[in-house]
Amino acid sequence: MTDAAVTQSGRPPFWRNVRVLRWVFQIGVLAIVAVVLAWLYSNYRTNVARTKIPTNFKFLDRPANFEIPGNAMSQTAPVRNALVQGLLNTLRVAVAGLILATVLGTLIGIGRLSKNAVVRTLCTVYVETIRNIPLLLLLLFANLGLVLQVLPRLTDAWEPLGLAVLSNRGIAIPWYVGSGWALLAIITIGIVGGRLVARWRRNVFDRTGTRARTGLWSAVVFLAAVVIGWIAFGYRVTTPEVSQRLTIGGMRLDPSFFALLFALVVYTASHIAEIVRGSIQAVDRGQDEAAQALALSGFQRMWFVVLPQAFRIAVPPLGNQYLNLIKNSSLGAAISYFELTNVTQISVANSSPPVPAFALALAVYLVISLVVSGLVNVWNRRLALATR
Amino acid sequence: MSTPTSATGDERNNDNEVNADATTMVGDREVIITLEHVVKRFGDFTALSDVNLRVGRKEVVVVIGPSGSGKSTLIRCINRLEQHDEGRILVDGTELSDDIRNIQEIRRETGMVFQQFNLFPHLSVIDNITLAPRQVRRMPKREAMALGTELLERVRIPEQAHKYPRQLSGGQQQRVAIARALAMTPKVMLFDEPTSALDPEMINEVLDTMKDLATEGMTMIVVTHEMNFAREVADRVVFMAEGSIVEVGTPEHFFTNPREERTKLFLSQIL
Amino acid sequence: MNSPTRMSRSRAWTRHNLFRTWFDGIVTVVFGSLAIYVALRLLNYVFVTGRWDVVRRNLKLLLVGRFPDDELNKVVIAVAVSVLWGGVLVGLVIGRQRRAGTYVERASAPAKHVGLLVARFWPILVAVAALLALSDSVGPWIATLVIVASAVVGRAGGVVVAGRVSSAPSPVKAVLGLGLVAVPLVVLVALANVLGWDEWGGFMINLTIAAAAIVMCFPLGVLLALGRASKLPLLKASSTGYIEIFRGSPLFVLLLLANNALEFFVPRSIAPGVVVRAVIVFTLFTAAYVAEIVRGGLQSVPPGQDEAAKALGLSPAKTTLLITLPQALRNVIPAQIGQFISLFKDVTLAGTAMGVFDLLDVGRTITKQPDFAGQRLDVESLAFVALLFWVGSYTMSRESQRLEKKLGVGT
Predict the structure, then answer these.
(1) pTM of the predicted protein model
(2) For A166-200, b where at least 16 C-beta lie within 10 A, e where not — what string?
(3) C-beta separation of C61 from C362 below 8 A
(4) What phi and psi values does residue B246 have, to the nearest 5 degrees?
(5) B135 vs C102: CB contact, 8 Å cut-off?
(6) Which residue blocks in C230-269 are alpha helix, DSSP H?
């Protein structure tokens, strides 16, 4: 007995040693993966050598040979510039889409929990219809059915109140004239000022119990900042008007931009609505009852007790939807909206090497995804700390 | 009780236990489990510090102590659910090392019963019991089913064979878990607070099953808070605190005349 | 006797759900009349003003693409066999559950049973009705009958087989299992013999690509999930890398890349056609999402399960295969179905990115035929395509909710 124990107490042979086996297993798996990758790479080398297609990124400096509508970019400008314009167009539609989809989705999600049967039913029908239709189909519908079919020609464009011009050549809305950077600064000052005032109001509330009304106060401060800045910097508003065969003044949005934005917002909102609804329902009913027992009003129960908890549940899936929206903006290529994917595709058609060009596009999307999911993680962590 | 307890009067503090025949014998019993200078850390926290213990064949050892004292970690180290950092653990002559064969061998020879039962919810009761014999011991299905039925009779619930765990009461589930462990015909049974998750009225049916096992001569290490069980069934009681064994003795010694202050304090709190 | 209480109950419902406050009343009236107006316009469009000729004349193209006319019976047979096969699978599962006593029997009266089936599958009935209304020959009627009959026969047969097979010797079981695996492959190859995959089109190619990718992405996804959940650092890192790269990439760009550049990565002799390319991309892409779902399932299995299996002496591989993985997969069935619905819808991207002649692509093409060009028939065509997609994915998502309740899993 004891002898056996003593003889076995030494190190086991390596083929029975769990530590060794673990590494052997991992290296084995990785070796298979490496062989596959090496095979792909060697095929790539052979095929590239055969077809003499370049594998480097020098194509970025060659002239693009195509134009991007709405941008003063000449045909001789390098591919690099075209890609940057494409990226900007991607970001433009993504940012607008994120904001609008969040607003619409939240409204519909809350609507699905409404006590009013009509509102409830309408929101449910919206979600169950849109969610189960391919995004590309919605996009084509928005482009072919709405923008190009419903909107009139430019010659008989709709001009509601003389403020905007709606036609199948695009939608023009009133816009400001002046420095964009200064406007950004003004808005930043407004937000910071609003938050400072809100903090002061909360202090007052803590000391005296007077109602804080933080929303009202910060809105007033924000508006004041914007109005003062607007006057001080001499901003003007231009409204668009039709002049011969184009619109002048205001800001013109491409029809394809509008169609893409419409489809992305409508589609993503249906998913966000489900997240919002699920998160509110996931908050323990006991929480609402406890708040009721404390005699909080309906609004107070929602605002101080239910929503903060629902929000925490909603953030991770919401982040996924944001990522999806950004990636889905690549469908703009299907309706000739000049975002990153479309520009890449066109430049490949104009003899940029496909592998480096698409690899570059993928890398850009990957970076955007990483940045956004990083932001969502930070946000999530802060919420987790605050409402633990 | 299977044997008179007076013969197992190994009442010295374990740290002193280094003489020659103590490595092969506990009292008049052959040693089946040996822990020597076992240390287990979780990060900075030391769960076990220099634990020494020998358990003899057919002996019933009850481990008691405040929560967080390392009782569960101790028995989880014995079948490698936790990997000890220092020292040696031998079960029936086999040392727990990085040798995959030894780990599997020791797990086959030791049965374990958990606080939360840990029955497999996607398998019926009989499948829970026959899984390991068939998969590990390569027992033919017919034979395994016969064994399973016999074990269910032994834990007194033969009629539940084709139900699923969630359809059973807690006490029944824990008895199935005991039967499942017994199906591997282990040499040692480890019990990790087997009654702590049970409703009070179900505790006795599980304890009775365990008493039967002890009577039949099973070697058992039991972590529990059931002092009556310890008093009635244990050959030795081990008291642990803060990762060390504070005192070892017969139940008689333990509950009437404990030596260490720490033990006295603990017993006064729970009795 | 009964009616007054019922009256007052419905009045109470109305007050509570429609007119709680005066504001609520206004909302009800405004949105209610808006909804009625839209619904009426929609009905008018569907039955009166809609110019459905473009769909009617291209029905075959939309459903099966350019499959030769005189071989269409083979498609019907293939669908019938697939449905029979699916019915047998469902029947087998139900049969097993009955034996285990976990199957909940409901609604014994046949009329009630039919009623429940209609309530469950009404979208499919709507789609079939639309198809039959648009067809002008007797062929589709016969096809519908054959397919429905084979579904019923398969479902009933599966239950019977499940009862018989439980006591059958294991070689018989093995043969049956192999047969079940072989059926879809045989169907696929038989159809491909009539017309090569790359020539397929219409709804048929959507369903084929989706089904092929689902079957193949699943094992890859499970392996990746196990890799990412494992404690082995190299394995974990490489699985995580794969998952994050594919989840961070737009599917559309991956499809474009495969379309433009796949031939660079394989020898010229085996460069695959568009359909195979599409299946490869969908498989690799969806596997990353499946992996994340399965990983969630693995995390939802309590650690005690793993410990109990190990304590019984099961090897790590057997512990995973017999204990943790089955529980994890069961917990994530609804999420998986959700992912597969996405895949079903995403196949449309292959039409635009790779030139696969899929349903949506057909829908865009037919409005440009000489007979219909310039008549702005996009809405009619897209509406019909949308109906088919909606029916498919709405039915799947409802079935998944049903399953979720039945299994008692999910969120």
Answers:
(1) 0.85
(2) bbbbbbbeeeeeeeeeebeebeebbeeebeebbee
(3) yes
(4) -90, -40
(5) no
(6) 233-248, 251-265
Please state, in angstroms and rounded to a whole number, the distance separating the CA atoms of residues C306 and A388. 29
Asked if the Cβ–Cβ distance from B97 to A8 is below 8 Å, we say yes
| CA–CA distance, B193 with B171 (Å, rounded to integer) | 13
β-strand partners of B238:
B63, B248
The model's pLDDT over A225-282, given as tens digits with 9 standing for 90+, comes to: 888 888 888 887 888 777 776 777 777 788 889 899 999 999 999 999 999 999 988 8
- CB within 8 Å of A115: residues ≥ 6 apart: C16, C17, C20, C24
Residue C88 in tokens = 């047998």
Of chain B residues 159-178, which have a CB less than 8 A from chain C?
A: 162-164, 177
Residues of chain C above pLDDT 90, percent: 35
Task: Report the side by side order of strands in the sheet with A251-253.
Answer: A165-167, A170-173, A251-253
Q: Beta-strand (E) ranges in A219-314?
A: 236-238, 241-243, 246-248, 251-253
Residues β-bridged to residue A173: A251
Residue-wise pLDDT tens digits, A24-58: 888 998 999 999 999 999 988 888 888 888 888 88
Q: Which of C357, C341, C339, C358 is nearest to C294 (CA)?
A: C339
Mark yes or no for CB contact C313/B107 under 8 Å.
yes
Contacts of A24 in chain B (CB under 8 A): none
Task: Write b or e for each residue in C138-159: b if 16 or more Cβ atoms lie within 10 A of its Cβ, otherwise e.
Answer: eebeebbebbeebbebbbebbb
Best mutation site among A2, A6, A21, A25 for testing chain B: the one with the most B CBs within 10 Å? A2
Q: Which residues of C touch B174 (CB under 8 A)?
A: none
From residue A119, alpha-carbon distances to A102, A271, A275 in Å are: 19, 18, 18
- CB within 8 Å: A119 and C31: yes
**Predicted ipTM of the assembly:** 0.89
C46 DSSP 8-state letter: I
Burial, C302: exposed, middle or buried (Cβ in 10 Å; 0-12, 13-18, 19+)?
Answer: middle
Is the minimum CB–CB distance between A208 and chain B shorter than 8 Å? Answer: no
Quote the CA–CA distance of C79 and B41 in Å, as a whole number.
62
pLDDT tens across B179-202, in order?
A: 999 999 999 999 999 999 899 999
Answer yes or no: do C253 and A330 touch at CB < 8 A. yes
User: What chain A residue is nearest to C270 in terms of C-alpha separation?
Assistant: A43
Q: Which two tokens stand for residue B170?
A: 């807690």
The answer to whether the CB atoms of B120 and C318 lie below 8 A apart is: no
Token pair for B201 = 């009225």
Cβ atoms of residues B238 and B53 within 8 Å: yes
Half-sphere exposure of A113 (CA within 13 A, CB side): 16
Cβ within 8 Å of B, A 13-32: 13, 16-21
CB contact under 8 A, C304 and B118: yes
- How does pLDDT run along chain A (388 residues), one tens digit per residue? 344 444 444 567 777 787 888 888 889 989 999 999 999 999 888 888 888 888 888 888 888 777 777 666 667 788 888 898 899 999 999 999 999 999 999 999 989 988 888 899 999 999 999 999 999 999 999 988 887 777 777 777 777 777 778 877 778 887 877 777 888 888 889 999 988 988 888 888 888 888 878 888 888 999 998 888 888 888 878 887 777 767 777 777 888 898 999 999 999 999 999 999 999 888 877 888 888 888 887 777 877 888 888 888 888 899 999 999 999 999 999 998 989 999 999 988 888 888 899 999 999 999 999 999 899 888 888 877 665 4
Mutate to test the interface with B, among C312, C325, C327 (most CBs of B within 10 A): C312
Q: In whole angstroms, give the CA distance from residue B94 to residue B96.
A: 7
Ramachandran area for residue B236 (φ above 0: left; ψ -120 to 50: alpha; else beta): beta
